[in-house]
Amino acid sequence: MIFADLELKINTKSGNExxxxxxxxEEYKKTVLVIGVFHGDEPDGEYLINRFLSERTDxxxxxxxxxxxxxxxxxxxxxxxxxxxxxxxxxxxxxWEPQKKDAKDEYFGGEKPASELETQFLIYIIEKYVxxxxxxxxxPYSIVNYDGPAVEEAQKISEITGYPIQxxxxxxxxxxxxTFCGIEKEIPTITLELPEKSDKEILWxxxxxxxxxxxxxx
Length: 218
Description:
Blueprint: E1 5-11, E2 17-23, E3 31-36, H1 44-53, E4 62-66, H2 71-76, H3 117-129, E5 133-138, E6 141-147, H4 151-161, H5 177-184, E7 189-195, H6 200-217
Parallel strand pairs: 3-4, 3-5, 5-7
Antiparallel strand pairs: 1-2, 2-4, 6-7
Helix pairs in contact: 1-6
């Protein structure tokens, strides 16, 4: 059972659904967006979102959730979507780079920026709901990475999880979601890197305070 309102949904190339779920009090000052499964082989974000939404809790903020942005990739256990595009390289940033067709790999950013319907859907949500904070759930580095004016939020999430803050992921990420939202749109954007293949109960106990934070004190 999921205790949230279905706000929007679209179907992917393979016919899977991408859902935008919402918890919204009568009055609120801030909007927080949480996204799971950018990459299909990083499934734990969906588990954590659904685990939180399986319980009735109050919130002072409007909370938006995309439990699984890349269901086609999850179905195929691939980083990329059904078109072989890394969604986290497909955003229309100033540093987006085309790749030669014969050089496609799991980091392929698409034939053009925002070529993928998953990317387009997420851009639409950002523009429509104008979140004050965005958290994306990735694997496997056990760090808190951030883009844009998110130092305080990163520090709080680091305190909750015990994961260290790392401003740079350590390699170039042209066309990334963090660059698009955090750096270019100046929305505080957290990339929470979870450990790989964690015990679900241990992982939940490690990060559940984040959901309390965005509901009660952010």
